[in-house]
Amino acid sequence: MEEIKNLEGDIKLSNTQKRILEILYKNKMSSREISKILNLPRNNISKYLNKMHKQGILLREVNNNEYIYSINPQYINIISKKIGK
Fold first, then answer.
1. Which of 47, 56, 69, 84 is the most exposed place for a label (fewest CB within 10 A)?
2. Per-residue pLDDT of the chain in tens (85 residues, 90 and over written 9)
3. What pTM value is reported for the model?
4. Which CATH number is associated with domain 2-83?
5. What share of the chain is helix, strand, coil (3-state, %, to 5)?
6. Where are the domains of the chain?
């Protein structure tokens, strides 16, 4: 697990969370799209997305009754270093 700093302390990231952030880097996507790319069950991806949204790492908007996720701009520099972009 890797950590990123936020205003409330460190946030630990699993390998799956890092892969999700790599996909969302400069993109906006739904849990369905991410689950197809990672070939993982949508409910697992949704749990990770929801957790990162609650931590403030991800932003979420509604589009056609579906959540679309993107990286919070406050974290983009930290995340780009973590994922090597």
1. 84
2. 455 555 444 667 889 999 999 999 989 999 999 999 999 999 999 999 999 999 899 999 999 999 999 999 998 888 887 777 6
3. 0.84
4. 1.10.10.10
5. 50, 30, 20
6. 2-83
